[in-house]
């Protein structure tokens, strides 16, 4: 795939929204201007709604604060987290575009090993517009990339691939570590640039990071709920993880693919490990129950839409994780509220997938 040049006509200009959660002025957009300016931005302001967030001149954007979320969703606004970057999923819900790219406001343009600026958005779009290979691993990684193909022994019947639902990008500089790892490796920086994209195989879960992430909203949008986190909740920093686990189980069921690897962004600053530990410690403990739960989730064949799959997962969360902690009963209810709110905001949706034979 060709490098990070700015296309004369930006790819998917009218079919993609960029969603940014923030509590501060968005000066970081200046660096992204060559790549983001042609696109519509949905900014979800967290924290104090009376604070004025400044956006650099020349960007096409809409900004929603907590008052807007309450006004638009009414009682169902309870499913949107407060004082946590999980609030970004409100932007996914109110978007009217086919694709979403979401990025954190401390992420800057990275450079590839030859020193050229990386157009992260362009690479995500290329990932989403080419198929995935979840059912059989290709040892040359992405076979649809220029200069690569399927290797000997790859079944011809599987070479059409599967629709790509999610493109999970990575980060140079500050790695996405949990608090205990941050504490024991405070000076570690990710300097390893791997020029590869690969499909995460069917049946394999992964830790999804929300700071550099793109997805096909029509295919998988209702599954991208970042949970109940932050203010009033016993846990934080697991919002993207929760969405990633739910999303991957549903993609596996409906026959969609998930890619990870390129593109890289430059993650500029590490969050405080002691603050993070306070947010994460229950999640670190609970995830030892959560991973086996998601590994064992089976969705019935009549779950043919993302919404049906998601509601079914919520029932299983209540039945099996409710005994781990009461929080999971609350989360399961919020999952249903999220789907109801999604369907209210997106009444004509509901892509019916052809569920592959198990």
TrEMBL record:
Enzyme superclass (EC): isomerase
SUPFAM superfamilies referenced in this protein's UniProt entry, alphabetically: Nucleotide-diphospho-sugar transferases (SSF53448)
Single GO MF descriptor: UDP-arabinopyranose mutase activity
Glycosylation sites recorded in the entry for this protein: 152
Domain of life: Eukaryota
Keyword Metal-binding belongs to the record: no
First-listed, main subcellular location of the protein, grouped into a coarse class: Golgi
Catalytic activity of the protein: UDP-beta-L-arabinofuranose = UDP-beta-L-arabinopyranose
Biological-process GO terms, alphabetical: cell wall organization; plant-type cell wall organization or biogenesis; UDP-L-arabinose metabolic process
E.C. number: 5.4.99.30
GO cellular component, one term: Golgi apparatus
Family named by the database record: Belongs to the RGP family.
Function per UniProt: Probable UDP-L-arabinose mutase involved in the biosynthesis of cell wall non-cellulosic polysaccharides.
Name assigned to this protein: UDP-arabinopyranose mutase
Organism this protein belongs to: Juglans regia (English walnut)
């Amino acid at each position: 795939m060709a490098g990070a040049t700015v296309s004369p006509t930006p790819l998917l200009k009218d079919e993609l929204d960029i969603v940014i959660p923030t509590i501060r002025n968005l000066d970081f957009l200046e660096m992204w201007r060559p790549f983001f300016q042609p696109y519509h931005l949905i900014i979800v302001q967290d924290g104090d709604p009376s604070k004025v967030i400044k956006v650099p001149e020349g960007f096409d954007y809409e900004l929603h604060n907590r008052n807007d979320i309450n006004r638009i969703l009414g009682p169902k606004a309870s499913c949107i987290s407060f004082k946590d970057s999980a609030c970004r999923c409100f932007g996914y819900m109110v978007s009217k575009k086919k694709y979403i790219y979401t990025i954190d406001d401390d992420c800057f343009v990275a450079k590839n090993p030859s020193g050229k600026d990386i157009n992260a958005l362009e690479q995500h779009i290329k990932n989403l517009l080419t198929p995935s290979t979840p059912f059989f691993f290709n040892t040359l990684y992405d076979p649809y990339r220029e200069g690569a193909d399927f290797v000997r022994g790859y079944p011809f019947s599987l070479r059409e691939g599967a629709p790509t639902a999610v493109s999970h990008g990575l980060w140079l500089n500050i790695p996405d570590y949990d608090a205990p790892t941050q504490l024991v490796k405070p000076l570690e920086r990710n300097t390893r640039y791997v020029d590869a994209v690969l499909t995460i195989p069917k049946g394999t879960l992964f830790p999804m990071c929300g700071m550099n992430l793109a997805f096909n909203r029509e295919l998988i949008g209702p599954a991208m709920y970042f949970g109940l986190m932050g203010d009033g909740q016993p846990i934080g920093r697991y919002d993207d993880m929760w969405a990633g686990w739910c999303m991957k189980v549903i993609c596996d069921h409906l026959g969609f693919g998930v890619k990870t690897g390129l593109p890289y962004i430059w993650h500029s600053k590490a969050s405080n490990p002691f603050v993070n530990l306070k947010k994460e410690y229950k999640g670190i403990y609970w995830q030892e129950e959560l991973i086996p739960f998601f590994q064992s989730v089976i969705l019935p064949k009549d779950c043919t839409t993302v919404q049906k799959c998601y509601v079914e997962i919520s029932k299983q969360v209540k039945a099996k994780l409710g005994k781990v902690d009461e929080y999971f009963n609350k989360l399961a209810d919020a999952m249903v509220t999220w789907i109801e709110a999604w369907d209210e905001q997106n009444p004509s949706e509901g892509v019916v997938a052809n569920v592959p034979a198990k």
